[in-house]
Amino acid sequence: MARICVVGLGYVGVVTGAIFAEMGHHVVAVDVIPEKVDALNAGESSIYEPGLDELLKDCVPARFNASMDMVAAVADSDITFLCVGTPSTTDGGQDTSYLEASSKSLGEAIAAKGEYHVVVVKSTVLPGTTDTLVKGGLEAAGITCGEDFGLAMNPEFLREGSAVQDAREPDRVVIGGFDQRSIDETAELYVGIGCPFVETDLRTAEMIKYASNSFLATKISFANELSRLCEAVGIDVYEVMDGIALDNRIKRSFLNAGMGFGGSCFPKDVRALVSLANSLNLDSALLSAVLDVNRSQPLHGVDLLEAANGTLAGKRIAILGLAFKGNTDDVRETRALPVAEELKKRGAVVVGYDPEAAENFKAMFPDIEIVGSIHEALTCANGCIIQAEWDEFRELSADDVDVMADKVVVDGRRIVEDVDGLEESGAIYIGIGLGSIE
Ligand code: UGA
């Protein structure tokens, strides 16, 4: 079994470390934030992710520990995964400052160790980052790529909310390498994972990650644009998507029209590709349109609510689901934010409920009344928007909406199961992309 070091105790680092430990490897994670290190060593994850706590319980401390000492962690391992964040810069590009800093300290640790070590970039980085910025950062310590250390790029395809499952059963493992040795030593860690392996060069691996996320984001914006057309001509876009997905060349996933895509990945990654294209004087009409549709879709949800209510001024409106999707407490780029801002702008009083993300959302948008249940959110409300796919919203019932002052439900994720029951109770149900012929 291998000895692995993981740099960065964020989302990707914790899940990657835990899964490698579950596979029997020995993992030490390094972070500069003492609270994150202490939490992991206590077997606690600082993120909400189904199945992760149980996993940590099984492998901490026997096979998974955290430390702030990079030199010691590298000395005790043979391969290091860089899992630090690469957030957006103000112009949509990628901020590589964490990656640069960690590459430099990793290089110094490898030089101090004086033995061959493989470095694997897992952070999402634009093509050309690993073989320039990361390689340069490592070599600043006087070591040479291909001789003193190997270099690979192994992008991550985990979805928040199902990360543990995705990591256990990936669709594919992509490994780009500076040389074959780097690829082989990285691939060895995944022995036993039954999925296709893609071996490629560093830049191709980097681009595969961006292309995957951008393509999925494009599918969503396509479904969202079509949903407005369907609404206008009395068609259900979900039926249309089911119909096209029977063509083997099209898959049904990520064609759910809704309130748009959020999270720490799709918006950031599409913006980064647009920014890369711009910097190379290349056209990015399609990806720019993907972002445009995503900007207007949540406002469209508010328009639907306003059309049913007459006006939103002075109305009490509940947002059900504040996270960027169900099963997570993550509010980064959540579509609940543009919805809440637009509701405020149109004069509504905004109340919000989310099983996990309420506090995080309140910190970002304080001008909201946070409540602890669907019942409280809907009491005396003049309308509601379902923004995230939590299971409890699927079961929205006639009893739930009975406490509303005006029973107007905009199902921004098309998840309500008993639509007939709601309508029979006198509620106005408006599903995104569900056109009805009057
Ligand atoms: C996404 C990718 O799915 C992962 O493969 C990738 O590893 C990850 O980004 C990343 O780059 O780290 P994630 O952001 O966790 O994962 O969430 P998704 O499940 O992909 O959903 C993203 C957004 O799209 C959510 O706001 C969701 O509500 C929305 N969505 C998704 C739709 O509006 N319609 C759909 O049909 C599917």
Q: Quick summary of this structure?
A:
With 438 residues, the chain is an alpha/beta fold. 44% of the residues lie in helices and 14% in strands. It has two domains: 3-200, NAD(P)-binding Rossmann-like Domain (Rossmann fold, 3-Layer(aba) Sandwich); 266-431, Rossmann fold.
What name does CATH use for the topology of the largest domain?
Rossmann fold
Strand order of the largest sheet: 3-2-1-4-5-6-7-8
Q: Calculate Rg over CA atoms.
A: 24 Å
How many helix segments?
A: 18
Q: Could you say which small molecules are bound to this protein?
A: uridine-5'-diphosphate-glucuronic acid
Strand content: 5-15%
The overall pLDDT average reads: 96
- Major sheet size, sense and barrel closure: 8 strands, mixed
How many domains? The number is 2
CATH superfamily descriptor of the largest domain = NAD(P)-binding Rossmann-like Domain
Shape: elongated
Structural class: alpha/beta
Report how far the terminal alpha carbons are from each other. Answer: 65 Å
Name of the CATH first level of the largest domain = Alpha Beta
Provide the helix percentage: 40-55%
Number of strands: 14
- Low-pLDDT runs of 5+ residues are none
CATH architecture of the largest domain: 3-Layer(aba) Sandwich
